[in-house]
Each structure stands twice: as C-alpha cells, then as structure tokens.
C-alpha cells in the first residue's frame, strides 16, 4: 500500500490544491487535506497543505496504514469530529507526533460517498478553544460539505487517479478482449478469434473487471471506454 | 431517547441494532406487507451494509421503539438504486447537502395512543427531531424520505408536512411508495418540538446509551428461578423450561396461569422468583 501525493504527479490536480487552500483561507482553518482510498489496491491518495516535514514524517512512519481519521471516518455519513477518537490509541499515536510539527488534534473529517460507493475525505484542523470550535462548526459545515464534494469530483474527474493507478494495470490481452466484447462478440467468438480457450477469455475478463473495479462486464466496458483504454464498438 | 448508530460505534450497539432489525421485520414485513427480505426474524438489505446512520429511539427500559435510516444521496441509495421508478425516468438527486431517509418506523405494539412519552405520536416526533438535528449539524439542508401514504398523513398531522414530492407515487408490491422532501431547518424542528411538547435534548451520548442498556439488561436478565441457590425442584425446573420454550404471548400467559394455579405447591419466595423469571420473556413476546 502506497501513499501517493497527487500534487507531485500532474498539473491538473492544482485545482484540488486550490480547493484545499481556499477552504483554509475562506473558512478559517489552519490546514486542510483531501484523501481517497483506492478500492482495488488500498492505496491512499490525496493532497494536503500540511508542512512538507509533516507529510514526509506521516508517510515514512506509515501513518496512512492505520490513521483513524481515514479508516474510521469512511464508516460515517456525517462529518466526524476527531473528538470521537479521543480514546483511540491509533489516533493518539499519530497526533502525538503531529503536535511536534505544530499540528493540532482538533479537527474533523467530511466523508463523501460517490455513486459507485467510493469514498473521499476532506480533513480540516484548527487550533482553538472548545467554544470557538463548536461555533465554527455550526457556521461552516454546509460550506465544508460542498468543498468536500467539489474536491472529490475534481480528483475523480481529473484523471489523476486513472493515470496513477488504472491505466498501467490493464494487460494487452485484457484490453484486446474488452475491445472485442465492445464489438459485440461472445466469449466463445473471442476465444476463436484469438485462438485461446473461452475459459482463458473468461480469466482475462475477470481480471480486467477487477482492475477496473467493475462488478459486471458491461460496467467494465463503460469504464474502459471512459478511460480511453478501448474504443467504442 | 435517541442514539445515532453509524459504522464507527456499531460494535458497541450490536444488541440495539439487532433489536432494530427485528422491529423493522415486524413493521415492514408483518404489519405493512412490504416486499422486504426477512432472515431469522430480522429485516436487512444491502444498504445496511454501506454504513448508513441509524437514528434509533429507545425507551427507559432500553427497548428499541422507533428508527430511521439515513444515507448520503451522493452515494448509492434507495431512490437511485431501488425506487428509481418513482422518479419517472429522471436522474436522482445527488447532493452532499441532501440525505435520504428510509425505513422509518415505530413499534405500535409497545407504544400506546395519545401524546404521552410512550405513545406512537411522541416517538414518531422524537425520531424526526433526532434525524433533522443530526442532519442539520452535518451541514445537510434537506432530506428526501421514501414513505408510504400512511406515513405521509402522519407527517402532515404532526407539524411536519413534506414541502414537496419528487416524481409520482408508485405501487411497490402491496403498497404505494412516494418520495417526500423535507427541509432540515430550525423552523421545521421547532414545529415538531411544539407539536410533541419535546423541549429537551433528545440525544444520548454513547456512554449514556451504553449505561442505559447495561442497567436494563441486568434487570431483565431471566436467570434461574431461585435466588437463594437452593436446588430447583422438578416443578420449578418444569416451569423454567416451559417459559424458555414459550414463543408467543399466549404461551407465556398459559405458563403464568399454571404457576398461579399451582402456587400452593411452593413457598411464596419460590413463587415470586418464578413469576419474575418470565418477565423478560413476556416483554419479548
């Protein structure tokens, strides 16, 4: 499982960076970050405006393997105040260190769920008093919901994810077979065309579906066309 | 009182959730005749596996008396994936500030008429207040509820009328389903609070809820019929067995009558112990 800093990949994600920065500037947070779990590989990708030293420390200590602000927050439909993790050993392990980098454990995570069940997380922190925090939450929660969905859609539509993960993973055979399916050929036909058994076709198709995170072949074809991996039939 | 159970605290409230799924089976399966999957007396569907938030009302005895399920409309939800025919072919609403409410029900067996604390009306309002306040705190502005015409009338009568409907009401098996829109606003919440005369904070913290469950469970624990650890007589054993195997209220009543009839066969202490033993079962039925 890798931790991928989307900012280092491509210029397109700059808009995600813009959203993250404007959340801090306009809503009054110290730091903000966006993260999403890749459903197939379990990688965590994201963008954060935390100090670079903290990002490096976080990644090199493997906090993304167990940070409850990621793994617990995906289990909620409502924004999760990190106060809920007060007694969580894993949370305390991450934020004891965070404190050394001037990052407060006072924060919250807004979970976003997409139509395929994929989840994105917008995290914000602010070092302030209890009263100030409660007041702030009431005031900005609606804006945070919108910012979260905006950040999520930007990452999902930017193709950064696809470039980082989806594209390299399909084999030539898998692409070839999906292309023939898109042309309307049956599994048996494809086996005959490629001179392989229909069972082999099935194995490649299953693998292709899994790599695309698709439940059905029809869905896999849709996604493969969407990513430009195959041409419409 | 209201407990919100989500994917984070679900492990703490396994028993409450189990009771809730049983209540849903009784209401949607038995009473309303909806086309739902019931397994082992519990109604669950695959949306329950997507970590929704369950807004659950429990009474002072720790029994589940009402519930509602909330899902984000940006993710998979019933209107987009199951009830789409209601929308007449239109795309479903997808918004981080709109949640979907489904499986809204109250226990009409445990709750009475009138407007008091243990009434259908009170618990209906309590669940609605809990849902709207929870949604509002999450920055959610509106909720879309999949309901039937009966629930629609209940809402209209209780200071909580939907402000609009999406698509058109459609028959779903034996019932008609409709998609009602309600704002999660202070005005609506105070309207429901006025109607039900509920002024207090309806939410229990996780700790308070766990304490209530623990307290009531100890009281209800059936245990053995003799508190002084005397060996059970054969007659006592018989009654405990009968009580344990009783599955309906009639059967429980029959055992209670038999204990009463044969009460000259044992001491008053034994009788009290025996009569206390089945309490929990009587509630269960």
TrEMBL record, chain A:
Domain (HTH luxR-type) ranges? 163-228
Keywords tagged on the record: DNA-binding, Transcription, Transcription regulation
Entry-linked InterPro entries: Sig_transdc_resp-reg_C-effctor (IPR016032), TF_LuxR_autoind-bd_dom (IPR005143), TF_LuxR_autoind-bd_dom_sf (IPR036693), Tscrpt_reg_LuxR_C (IPR000792), WH-like_DNA-bd_sf (IPR036388)
Matching CDD domains, A to Z?
A: LuxR_C_like (cd06170)
Which terms does the record give in the GO molecular function aspect? DNA binding
> What domain of life does the native source organism fall in?
Bacteria
Does Hydrolase appear among the keywords?
no
Listed Pfam families: Autoind_bind (PF03472), GerE (PF00196)
User: Which GO BP terms, alphabetically?
Assistant: regulation of DNA-templated transcription
Against SUPFAM superfamilies, the record matches this protein to: C-terminal effector domain of the bipartite response regulators (SSF46894), Pheromone-binding domain of LuxR-like quorum-sensing transcription factors (SSF75516)
Q: What is this protein called?
A: Transcriptional activator protein LasR
What gene makes this protein?
lasR
From TrEMBL, chain B:
Q: What is its EC number?
A: 2.3.1.184
Q: Which Pfam families match?
A: Autoind_synth
Keyword presence, Methyltransferase? no
Which biological process terms from the Gene Ontology are attached to this UniProt entry? quorum sensing; signal transduction
Known catalysed reaction(s)?
Answer: a fatty acyl-[ACP] + S-adenosyl-L-methionine = an N-acyl-L-homoserine lactone + S-methyl-5'-thioadenosine + holo-[ACP] + H(+)
Gene3D superfamilies (alphabetical): 3.40.630.30
- Report the InterPro entries cross-referenced here: Acyl_CoA_acyltransferase, Autoind_synth_CS, Autoind_synthase
GO function term, MF aspect, one: N-acyl homoserine lactone synthase activity
PANTHER family attached here?
Answer: ACYL-HOMOSERINE-LACTONE SYNTHASE, ISOVALERYL-HOMOSERINE LACTONE SYNTHASE
Q: Which family does it belong to?
A: Belongs to the autoinducer synthase family.
This chain belongs to which protein, by name? Answer: Acyl-homoserine-lactone synthase
**Species this protein is from:** Ruegeria meonggei
């Amino acid at each position: 499982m890798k931790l991928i800093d989307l900012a280092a990949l491509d210029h397109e994600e700059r808009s995600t960076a813009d959203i993250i920065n404007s959340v801090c500037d306009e809503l009054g947070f110290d730091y903000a970050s966006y993260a999403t779990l890749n459903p197939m590989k379990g990688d965590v990708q994201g963008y954060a405006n935390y100090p670079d030293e903290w990002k490096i420390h976080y990644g090199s200590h493997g906090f993304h393997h167990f940070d409850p602000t990621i793994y617990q927050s995906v289990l909620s439909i409502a924004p999760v105040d990190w106060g809920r993790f007060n007694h969580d050993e894993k949370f305390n392990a991450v934020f004891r260190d965070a404190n050394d980098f001037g990052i407060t454990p006072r924060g919250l995570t807004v979970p976003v769920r997409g139509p395929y069940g994929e989840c994105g997380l917008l995290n914000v922190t602010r070092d302030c008093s209890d009263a100030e925090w409660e007041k702030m939450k009431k005031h900005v929660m609606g804006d945070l919901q919108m910012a979260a969905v905006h950040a999520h859609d930007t990452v999902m539509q930017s193709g950064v994810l696809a470039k980082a993960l989806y594209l390299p993973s399909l084999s030539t055979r898998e692409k070839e077979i999906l292309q023939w399916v898109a042309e309307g050929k049956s599994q048996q036909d494809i086996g005959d065309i490629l001179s392989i058994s229909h069972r082999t076709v099935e194995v490649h198709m299953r693998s292709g579906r899994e790599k695309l995170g698709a439940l059905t072949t029809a869905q896999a074809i849709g996604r493969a066309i969407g990513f430009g991996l195959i041409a419409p039939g | 009182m209201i407990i919100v159970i989500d994917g984070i605290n679900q492990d703490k409230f396994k028993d409450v959730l189990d009771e809730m799924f049983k209540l849903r089976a009784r209401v949607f399966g038995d009473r309303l005749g909806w086309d739902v999957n019931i397994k082992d007396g519990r109604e669950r569907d695959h949306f329950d596996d997507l970590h929704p938030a369950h807004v659950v009302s429990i009474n002072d005895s720790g029994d589940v008396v009402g519930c509602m399920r909330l899902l984000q409309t940006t993710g998979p939800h019933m209107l987009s994936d199951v009830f789409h025919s209601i929308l007449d072919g239109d795309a479903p609403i997808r918004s981080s500030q709109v949640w979907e409410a489904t499986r809204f029900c109250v226990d009409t067996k445990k709750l009475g008429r009138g407007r008091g604390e243990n009434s259908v009306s009170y618990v209906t309002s309590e669940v609605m207040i809990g849902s709207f306040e929870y949604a509002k705190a999450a920055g959610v502005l509106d909720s879309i509820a999949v309901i039937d015409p009966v629930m629609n009338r209940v809402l209209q009568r209780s200071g909580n009328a939907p402000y609009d409907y999406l698509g058109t009401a459609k028959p779903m098996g034996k019932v008609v389903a409709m998609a009602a829109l309600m704002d999660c606003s202070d005005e609506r919440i105070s309207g429901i609070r006025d109607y039900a005369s509920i002024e207090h904070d309806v939410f229990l913290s996780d700790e308070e809820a766990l304490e209530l469950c623990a307290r009531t469970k100890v009281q209800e624990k059936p245990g053995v019929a003799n508190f002084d650890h005397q060996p059970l007589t054969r007659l006592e054993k018989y009654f405990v067995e009968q009580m344990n195997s009783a599955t309906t209220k009639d059967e429980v009543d029959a055992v209670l009558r038999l204990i009463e009839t044969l009460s000259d066969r044992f001491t008053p202490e034994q009788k009290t112990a025996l009569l206390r033993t089945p309490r929990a079962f009587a509630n269960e039925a």
